[in-house]
Write a structure and sequence with these properties.
The chain is mostly helical. The longest helix is centred in the C-terminal third of the chain and has 35 residues.
């Protein structure tokens, strides 16, 4: 879906976000987005490690 955005598209999105939210809110939105991505990444790693542990236990039986 977002494969063909490219750099000009990202710049356009950033300009639109700047117009809508203003320069004071943009850092807050960026921080919230970053922390959300970190949490998602952490949860995904936990799920993958849990699945690997479960698979190893089943193989050792």
């Amino acid at each position: 879906m977002f494969q063909n955005i490219g750099v000009p598209g990202l710049i356009l999105i950033l300009i639109i976000a700047l117009i809508i939210f203003g320069p004071s809110k943009l850092p807050e939105i960026g921080r919230a987005f970053g922390s959300t991505l970190r949490e998602f990444k952490s949860s995904t790693k936990d799920l993958i490690s849990y699945d690997k542990e479960k698979e190893e236990k089943e193989q050792s039986k």
